User: Which sequence fits this backbone?
């Protein structure tokens, strides 16, 4: 059970750090990860043995993937590309259980694993946002907000 | 014989033009070089005067075009008539946006010049849109298509790497067990 407590701690720390110190994409992701975590806990089948598709978790994972994919299209950050990649692999794991050779243990590992690297990535992303903010004074969150931050050079 | 305009540019003016090409603002260039924005604008103005053009974008384009012909002088062995003619010809057919005044024309010229930079021989991969922050550009300015594509490619990249790791791990474990049994 220690591993589960460590995971809760990691998610809490990364989401809190991103929510307090992050820019808009980091904050949104913190909220998304937290919501996905809580929903997965609630929707987990009560005596789940990972022998068949966990429909509740699958839906949450697909929703989280869609949100991260949208974020990687709209934000000026590179990390959502990789976070949605990780989440995508988690979604694919749900499809993999339909194929016979996948053991319940492998399924459980594949869908539970990605929370760790994603939380760590969120911490790194927030740290890098702070560094850019410190260096440049601004850090545009979205591609559509402006072509470049700051005043254009007069000709 | 005139010295080509690109060679009359000072090193400082070149640096400012190149950074302008990277879509940096005067303020950002100033921050990076540790000088004032006013000084940056002076350098850009100097560069415009050297080329005799009205906009920094046009000056940047001319520098980029000249950079595409980097070694004529060296390959032809110093300053010859031919070398000068060639380097002044700027053989890229570019619509310099004549007739368009202002931002739209500038943008066109800039994007042409950026393409010219991106396709320098030997540096062709620079035009490729990697999904990582690079040294010069920490901001994700990938095109819409690249943004659509990269997360999908990332799924496969991560999936394949994890799959390979798992397979290698199990093979190692198998080998380890076999060796252990042999030794016992």
Assistant:
């Amino acid at each position: 059970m220690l591993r589960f407590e460590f995971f809760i701690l990691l998610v809490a720390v990364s989401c809190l750090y991103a929510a307090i110190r992050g820019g808009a994409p980091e904050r949104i992701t913190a909220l998304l990860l937290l919501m996905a975590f809580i929903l997965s806990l609630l929707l987990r089948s009560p005596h789940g043995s990972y022998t068949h598709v966990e429909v509740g978790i699958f839906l949450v994972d697909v929703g989280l993937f869609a949100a991260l994919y949208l974020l990687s299209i709209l934000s000026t950050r590179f990390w959502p590309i990789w976070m949605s990649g990780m989440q995508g692999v988690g979604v694919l794991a749900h499809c993999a259980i339909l194929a016979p050779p996948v053991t319940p243990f492998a399924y459980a590992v594949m869908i539970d694993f990605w929370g760790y690297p994603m939380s760590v990535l969120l911490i790194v992303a927030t740290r890098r946002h702070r560094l850019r903010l410190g260096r440049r004074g601004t850090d545009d969150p979205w591609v559509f907000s402006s072509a470049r931050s700051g005043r254009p050079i007069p000709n | 014989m005139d010295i080509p305009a690109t060679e009359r540019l000072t090193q400082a003016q070149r640096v400012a033009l190149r950074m302008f090409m990277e879509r940096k603002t005067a303020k950002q260039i100033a921050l990076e070089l540790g000088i004032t924005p006013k000084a940056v604008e002076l350098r850009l103005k100097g560069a415009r005067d050297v080329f005799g053009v009205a906009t920094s974008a046009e000056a940047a384009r001319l520098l980029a075009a000249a950079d595409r012909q980097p070694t004529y002088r060296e390959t032809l062995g110093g300053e010859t008539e031919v070398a000068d003619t060639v380097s002044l010809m700027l053989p890229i057919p570019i619509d310099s946006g004549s007739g368009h005044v202002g931002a739209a024309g500038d943008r066109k010229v800039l994007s042409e010049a950026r393409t010219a930079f991106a396709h320098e021989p030997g540096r062709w991969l620079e035009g490729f849109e990697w999904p990582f922050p690079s040294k010069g550009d920490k901001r994700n300015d990938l095109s819409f298509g690249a943004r659509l594509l990269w997360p999908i490619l990332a799924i496969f990249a991560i999936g394949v790497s994890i799959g390979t790791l798992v397979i290698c791990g199990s093979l190692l474990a198998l080998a380890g067990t076999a060796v252990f049994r042999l030794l016992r």
Q: What stands out?
A: Chain A touches chain B at residues 68-69, 72-73, 75-78, 80-82, 84-86, 88-89, 92, 132, 135-136, 140, 143, 147-155 (CB under 8 Å). Helices of chain A lie at 2-21, 24-43, 55-74, 79-96, 104-113, 115-136. Confidence is low (pLDDT under 50) at residues 147-155 of chain A. Chain A is about 70% helix and 0% strand.
